[in-house]
Amino acid sequence: MTLAEGFMILGMMGVTFGVRYFLFALAERLRMAPWIEASLKFIPPAVLSAIILPAVLLPRGQWELSLANPYLVAAAVTTAAGILTRNLLATIAIGLSAFFAFRLIALTF
């Protein structure tokens, strides 16, 4: 890594920290409308969906809506486990187990 690249990384780090610190510093003094605060609750599920759905539905860069897609099967099992158990650790364990079991089964056939 060159010196210029190091300074560029430090600069990006400083800008990122500055923006986040500025917003957190203002958050204490700023009063938001109740409808804005209520709508902020939808941000985490929206971001999580935007990250997970492409990985599940397009695992190799193409649509793969079949039972041969271990990501899709594991996502369905994980969703069902989350709804039924309401336990985060159990949901993660069941989802990972389903994914690896299905991949193992798919590799043997």
Search tags:
single chain; 109 residues; mainly alpha; 0% strand; extended
Structure description:
The chain has 109 residues and is mostly helical. The protein folds into 2 domains: 1-30; 39-108, no CATH class. Helix content is 78%, strand content 0%. The protein has 5 helices and no strands. It starts with a helix and ends with a helix.
Structural class comes to: mainly alpha
Number of strands: 0
**Large-scale geometry:** extended
> Which segments are poorly predicted (pLDDT under 50) over 5 or more consecutive residues?
none
What string gives the helices and strands in order? HHHHH
Proportion of beta-strand residues: under 5%
Query: Oligomeric state of the chains?
Result: single chain
Sketch the major β-sheet.
none
Give the structure's gist in a few sentences:
The chain is an all-alpha fold. The protein is 78% helix and 0% strand. The protein is extended.
Map the helices and strands.
Layout: H1 3-29, H2 34-39, H3 43-57, H4 70-85, H5 88-108
Helix pairs in contact: 4-5
